[in-house]
Amino acid sequence: MEQAKPKAVIMDEQAMKRAVVRIAHEVIEHNEGASDIAVVGIVRRGVTLARQLTDAIEEIEGTRPQLGSLDISFYRDDVMRNVAPVIHGTNIPFSVDDENIILVDDVLYTGRTVRSALDALMDLGRPKSVQLAVMVDRGHRELPIRADYVGKNVPSSHEEDVRVCMKPLDDRNSVEIWELDAEKNAGGAN
Amino acid sequence: MLSVKNLIDTYSLTADDITQILDTAASFEAINNRPGIKKVPALRGRTIVNLFLEPSTRTKSSFELAEKRLSADSLSMGGSTSSVVKGESLADTIQTIDAMNVDMFVCRARLAGTPQKITENTDAVVINAGDGKHQHPTQAMLDLYTIRKHFGHLDGLKVAIVGDLAHSRVCGSLAPALKTMGAEVTLVGPPTFQVDDPDWFGCPQTSSLDEVIEDMDVVYMLRVQLERMEGAAIPSKREYNRLYGLDMRRVNHMKENAIICHPGPMNRGMEINADVADCARSRILNQVNAGVLTRMAEMYLLLGGESNGISA
Amino acid sequence: MAFLLKGAHAVDPQVGLDEVVDVLIDGERVAEVGSDLEAGQDVQVIDATGKYLVPGLVDMHVHFRDPGFEYKETIETGSRAATHGGFTDVATMPNTDPVTDTGTGIRYQIDRGHAAGLCHIRPIGAMTRGEKGEALSEIGDMVLEGAVAFSDDGHGVQSAGMMRTCMEYIAQFDRVAIAHCEIETLSGHGVINEGKASTRLGMFGWPALAEELEIYRDIELCRLTGCPLHIAHISTVKGLELVKGAKAEGLPVTCEVTPHHLFLNEDDIDTTYNTNLKMNPPLRTPDDAAALREGILDGSIDCLVTDHAPHAAHEKDCEWEIAFFGTVGLETSLPLMLNNLVRTGKMSWQRLVEVMAVNPRSVLRLPKVKVERGSVADLTLIDPDREVTVTEDYLQSRSKNSAFLGQTLVGSATDVFVAGRRTLENGVVA
């Protein structure tokens, strides 16, 4: 499986970096600075991305937003079919009440992950607002959810898998399109 | 995913199963401790029947709370309200409830093997909440959670289980689970309370608490069932307390970091003295807290069904 | 009606017979045993080539539940099961409701047996009234009505004094006292062998000592009273040693064992809590079972019995601790012995005939039955290669609680003759 090659590489390391920096600028602009925001990544790749985004915002503004991670395993609407093999746990070391939360994930697809994340976030408190940042929006929404900040729009088909690879979870930084094989397709992929 | 479909006994669990339960319970701890909503929708729409064929307040309320925190729909039946008392057979009771399409049975029973019999009459998942003198696996998991939380690990720990060993499902499930996780278990009790075959547990058995207490990391006091007691297997409460009760004199011989556990409800002044139950070594209330967490973990892992990847 | 059995391998150690012969049955009796016998007029010829012909099998320990528990078994349905299993005689235990403790009760059993018309019912009377262990029952009256032995089976007689009285009284009648050995203050709430099994499955143990101590007591009472003693369903090494010791001293002590104690042990009880394995006395250790197998081969155990204990489905399909004790056995006993001991070469056909036909008749003081001219034609014809699979459909007993369900066994009875009447014909009950 790992020997196989992606169908296409649509973002390389440089492109991903540029996208993070651009999103950082957009977040700062939209929120008139970085003092009233907190960044929350969805486990797992959203967390890596959230850290990169936080670093970029600090670079630009000189202040570092608060950073947290959100595990949505217990909020999934497909728990009857899927039990998360490993639960990483939510780690949000601040109150979400009255914060502007920048929710970060790698890929936006059906919207179900984001819905679960919103539920999880609401159970923790009452944020002032929640904005969504993703590296890739591949379309095919099943719920009325849209991203506020997008690294790249990637039109895709259901037969494809859009993968965001990020160090250290992966051995490279890139966004790739893979042909989905029937076997792996069973539960739909990220 | 656990290697078992139902949670009936601890000797069927692998070390990996137990670790998964304890790890998952740890992630529920954050949810239980948070200031906001102490509840997740993980089992929303799932139906759980708590069938308590023997009276129980602690275990039952712990399960009920765990079910509520997972957003499951649950129904508790039992005691004098169950038709089992009216002479209906267990199979009939289970088939009747099963016909209403439930996802899980949590069963407490006076007779050993009842949860296993339930599995023969339903496709729903079955959790044993204590069957006769046989097993009480969810108690064992909360005990392991409590002990692991204190020491950070289970392997190599020395644990004494003390008291009415022969009539204890707590001992029956805790000892094998501890052994699976690499702990060393010593059984301590008067000869009339000792298990018929300690070799089956692979544990040494002794009648002297004083000889072993100073080597132990955990001293686990079992409840003495008063109704099984005076005049029959032991002469009196007073004598039992003197020979086997955990008092401060004995506690002072324990290792510096050693802890005390008890499954509750306690007979203060009998197997455990009041000042001991409330001392800094006591983890008795931590056990109660861990009960909700580990039961949430067990229900979550058992009702999750088959894993086939993650959808977004 | 006359039958000529051609080419059967007849085995009867009583007359030193172990060869292929022809046997002519005429009326109630064996008319001729010889070679190349000719069939006369009106003689049905049965080709018995490859089959074994033995004196009719006797099960001296069965529970037919009649009267009182007819929903489990009746003398009629029990007789069918016995016939299907190859038996010509069964001895019925008295723990019926009311307890068979009077001559009338004995007469009822015999009459119902005649009405069923399949096998000889040999009733065993209760030693004490109501099997309560408190007062002598009308033992003499029962002897006169046809009781073959006396027992409070189902319970031990708890009082040593009462047991002594029973045995002293029985001693005058040339009948044996059959002892179910269980000291109830030791067996207590026990439902499974005390030791590994009770620990593993979390239930009260039934210790070997509860049986052994009463075997010891009753052997000493045998010595004191001179009453012949037969130990029922022996289950432990130590119990067997006690019986061997008594025999070596010349005391009139015999004993019996069941197929389930020979071929099953406590390790067969797994976490499915199969209640068909719940016995009294309980299945013991593998070592006990091995010693019992040795005992039935070497002669220290006299008889094979089934302790046929039918129970209705609802009495077994429940939690182990409240399930009833016992297994049906009449239809699996011979196949188990053939499959596990005879076919494997451990047991000779002569020994099989001793433990399943000759010795039980002797213990019950029944007339001898032989494969010999002039003997009553109570005979069993066995096909050593006929396979049976133990399913609920296979069992003719009213109850299906067999500990051996699902097993396929090689060797079983095909034909049974009771006083010259063919009660089993090619495996089908008449």
Automatic annotation (TrEMBL), chain A:
GO molecular function: uracil phosphoribosyltransferase activity
Class of the enzyme per the UniProt entry, highest EC level: transferase
EC numbers for this chain: 2.4.2.9
GO biological process, one term: regulation of DNA-templated transcription
Stored Gene3D superfamilies: 3.40.50.2020
InterPro entries, per the entry: PRTase-like, PRTase_dom, PyrR, PyrR_bifunctional
Keyword Coiled coil attached: no
Domain Phosphoribosyltransferase, first and last residues per copy: 11-155
Catalytic activity: UMP + diphosphate = 5-phospho-alpha-D-ribose 1-diphosphate + uracil
Keywords recorded for this protein, A-Z: Glycosyltransferase, Transcription, Transcription regulation, Transferase
A Pfam family it matches: Pribosyltran
Motif position, PRPP-binding: 101-113
Cross-referenced HAMAP family: PyrR
Role of this protein: Also displays a weak uracil phosphoribosyltransferase activity which is not physiologically significant.
Family: Belongs to the purine/pyrimidine phosphoribosyltransferase family. PyrR subfamily.
Name this protein carries in UniProt: Bifunctional protein PyrR
UniProtKB/TrEMBL annotation, chain B:
Binding site for carbamoyl phosphate: R58, T59, R108, H136, Q139, G264, P265
Binding partners and assembly: Heterododecamer (2C3:3R2) of six catalytic PyrB chains organized as two trimers (C3), and six regulatory PyrI chains organized as three dimers (R2).
Name listed for the protein in its UniProt record: Aspartate carbamoyltransferase
Aspartate/ornithine carbamoyltransferase carbamoyl-P binding domain location: 5-148
HAMAP family reported in the protein's UniProt record: Asp_carb_tr
Family that this chain belongs to: Belongs to the aspartate/ornithine carbamoyltransferase superfamily. ATCase family.
Purpose: Catalyzes the condensation of carbamoyl phosphate and aspartate to form carbamoyl aspartate and inorganic phosphate, the committed step in the de novo pyrimidine nucleotide biosynthesis pathway.
A molecular-function term among this protein's GO annotations: aspartate carbamoyltransferase activity
Automatic annotation (TrEMBL), chain C:
Binding-site residues for substrate, renumbered to this chain: H63, F64, R65, N95, N280, H311, F325, G326
EC number from the UniProt entry: 3.5.2.3
Assigned GO CC terms: cytoplasm
Keyword Metal-binding in record: yes
Binding residue positions for Zn(2+) 2: D153, H180, H233
Reaction(s) the record says it catalyses: (S)-dihydroorotate + H2O = N-carbamoyl-L-aspartate + H(+)
Cofactor names: Zn(2+)
UniProt domain Dihydroorotase catalytic: residue ranges: 50-236
Record pathway: Pyrimidine metabolism; UMP biosynthesis via de novo pathway; (S)-dihydroorotate from bicarbonate: step 3/3
Protein name: Dihydroorotase
Phylogenetic placement of the source organism: Bacteria, Bacillati, Actinomycetota, Coriobacteriia, Coriobacteriales
Gene name of the encoded protein: pyrC
